[in-house]
Structure formats: C-alpha cells, structure tokens
Amino acid sequence: MSPAKPPAVHVVTDSTASLPSGDHPALSVVPLHVLVGEEAFFEGVEISPDDVAHRIGAGERVTTSQPTPHALVSAYEAAARAGARSIVSIHLSGDLSGTVHAAALAATRSPVPVRVVDSRTVAMGLGFAALAAADAAAAGATLDEVARRALAVADSSRAIFMVDSLDHLRRGGRLGVAAATLGTVLGVRPLLAVRDGRIEVIQKVRTRSAAVDRLIHVAVDSVGRRAEPELAVHFLGDDAAATEVADRLWDTTGVRAAVTPVSAVVGAHAGPGVLAIVVADRAP
C-alpha cells in the first residue's frame, strides 16, 4: 500500500498555542525563544514550562523573544518538501508578540503561498484554531477554507486567567502599569482576559479561592452560550489546581477539558501560579 498523500494545505503555528502532546499530519509548530540571563532556549525543545517556573522561583530573570523569519521560512520549506502546495500560518496575537509580523515577512520568501492569520489570542485559544485548521486541511479543504476555519475558531475563543502576581505581565509590557497596580495597592486579585488581542482586567476579587470560583463561573457562562464548546485548562508548575478546575467544569457543564501547561513563553510572562481557562466553539 502506498503512503497517504500529504494534505495540499499545511498549517503552521507557534509554540504559545500550548498544545497537548501529539502529532498532526497537517500541523507544524515553530518554537519561540526563552531567554534566561544570557542563554537562549527554544521553548518546548530545550526548555519546558516546569523549567521556567523553577528559574523564576530561583529569582533568575526570564524574558522571551519571537522566532526569526528564517525559522518560519524553514518551517514553510519543510512543509513544501513534504508535499504542501500552500500554507496557513496562524499565530498568537500581534499585540502580544511580533511573531505574526515575522511570519508575514517569512511568507514573502516561502516556496509556496502562505496565508498569515493573526489569531488575536494565545494558548489554546490559538491551539484550538490551529487544530481545527489542520483537521480541515487533512480533510481536503482549500487554502481559503482552512484560513477561514482558523479565524472562525480563534474569534470564537475566550481566554480568562488569574495570576499570583501581575509583576511579570507588567515588566514584559503585556499589561499597563495602572492595571498592574490593582493587585498591589488595592489588595485585590484581578481576573484577566484576552480581548481583541490584548490583556485586560475584567473582574476584581479579594482571594485566590474567590478568584478560582469566579474563573469557573465566567467559563461556565461562556460554555452555556455555545452549541458545541471546547475547553482547556492551563497551569504553570503544579497541575493540582488545574485538574480540580477541570473536574469542576466537567461536573457543571459535562464538557471534558484538556489540561495542559501553558507554554514556557506564556509562563514567563504570567509567572508561577497562573491558572487559565479557554473556551472555544468546536469547528463544524
């Protein structure tokens, strides 16, 4: 029996999608970089989310950077060599990283046409979109259809999260100083969300346990508004709280959540103790 013919459309995403382990024949992941002091690491290859949690806990300075256009061109060339005739390249919000802009530059050097999609989200908001696009590609969808599927699922997603400290987001420029001050001056623990590609404070509560309850409440409300929802719960470090949240969501909604660590890059900006829920529409 001859090997299966590769999909005509291939999907490329980046490592901030925080995807569960496993390969997809129509999907490739390009890693971002984690910088610890003067050392640079490919996330998911040379450094893990647990490593980042440990390094931050040890007081080391952890920063991040986007993939180079060359790295993205290499991914496009590899897909073309494998038989792809076009590519959908979907990435985390352009307001949070320059990755999507690097992809646009790389697309001009690709051996096959590339459609670049700014997901306007991150973590499994991006991950669900990339997987839906890859499924569509594997089923024989056209370039336009795959790109539309990616954007539709990304647009449907809602990512809400809480952190133990807003300092990491503030230092990384992902949250304004005024919003970051809420967690220190007023003694409140904000809930945050990704809205139109940016991180915003959506609610304020006093304790971590109350924040978890509100996080679940907001997610349950979002699930209830959807015909076929998908769920993911993210964490950095200890997964016990994430597993408990996933169990509570299952008990309340009947939807099983994927439990997966946030990527090392996302973890570097959110810090240890981050707990996130992503809700999205299942792709038709």
Automatic annotation (TrEMBL):
GO terms for molecular function: lipid binding. InterPro entries: DegV, DegV_C, DegV_domain_contain. Keywords: Lipid-binding. Gene3D superfamilies: 3.30.1180.10, 3.40.50.10170. The keyword Cytoplasm does not apply. It holds the Pfam family DegV. The keyword ATP-binding does not apply. This is DegV family protein.
